[in-house]
Amino acid sequence: MLSYRPGDSVAHGLDPRTKLLGQAGFAAVAFAYTTPRGLAALTVVTGAFLVAGRLSPIRALRSYLPALPFLAAGPLVSVVDLNTWRVGLDPGAAVAPLLASYRVLLILLVSAVYLHTTPVRDSRAAIQRLVPGRPGRLLGIGVGLVFRFLPLLRGDLRRVRTAAAVRLGGERPLRERMAVVGSAGIQRALGRSDRLALALRARCFAWNPTLPELRFGRADAVGLLVCAGLVGAAVVGAVPL
C-alpha cells in the first residue's frame, strides 16, 4: 500500500497545508472540466504533480488496484442498452461514464503524491490547523488512526491469503476462500483494535497533543499560486458564460 517515504523532492519540502489545498483545487477543476480537452490538460497537470513528488505512476496505480475494477465497471455497464424489446449495445453511452472514471483516476493519482510525501503527524497537524476547534481535533485523530491502521489490516489480509495458499486453500471453492479470509480478517481487526485501545490508554492518549510545527517556505509561495490558479480555473469553469 502507498505510504509516506522520506525524500528530498519538491513535494516533500512543501507544507502539508499547501498540498491539501492543491488537492482540493485539482478536484474542483476536475469536476468543472469533465471534457476530453479539459481532462487532457489535467493529465499534464497530474504528471507535473507526480514529477514533483518523484512518484512513479505505475506504483501509484498499483496502490489503487482494488478501486480500478469499479472505475472500469461504469463505462462497461453503460454500453449495454436494455429496453422492452431487445438487448443491444450503445457505445456512445459509455463516453460520459468513461470521462468521469478517468477524472476520478486523476484525482487518485494526485492524492497518491500527497500520501507519498507527507508524514502522518504532519497531516494531522495540517488538518487541525485548517479546521479549528474540536471538529478539527476529531478529524485529525481519525485521519491519523486510519493512515496507521489501514496498512496493518491490509498486511494481515495478505498474510492470511498467503497462509491459506500454502495449505492448498486455492483448491477450495471461492465461497469458502472468501469466508476464511473474511473471518480471519475480522478477528485480526478486532484484536488490533483492542490492542490499539489498550496502547492509547497506556500512553495517556492526549486529546490535544503537541503537534509538529508547520511553516510556509519559499516553495510554498509557488505552491499557493498554483492552488489559486486551480481554484480560479474551477470558478471560471463552474460559472456559465
Largest sheet report? 2 strands, antiparallel
* DSSP strand tally: 2
Order of helices and strands: HHHHEEHHHHH
Strand order of the largest sheet: 1-2
Terminus-to-terminus distance: 43 Å
Number of helices, counting only DSSP H or I runs of 4 residues or more: 9
What's the gyration radius in Å?
Answer: 22 Å
Structural class: mainly alpha
From the structure provided, what is the oligomeric state, counting identical versus distinct chains?
single chain
Which consecutive residue ranges, at least 5 long each, have pLDDT under 50?
Answer: none
Mean pLDDT: 82
Helix content: over 70%
Feature tags:
single chain; 241 residues; mainly alpha; two-stranded antiparallel ribbon; 9 helices; 2 strands; 71% helix; 2% strand
Concise synopsis of the structure shown:
The protein is mainly alpha-helical and 241 residues long. The chain has nine helices and two strands, in the order ααααββααααα.
Describe the fold and architecture:
- By secondary structure, this protein is mostly helical.
- The protein has helices at 16-32, 36-53, 57-63, 68-79, 95-117, 120-130, 133-166, 174-202, 218-238, and strands spanning 80-82, 87-89.
- Strand 1 and strand 2 (87-89) form a beta hairpin.
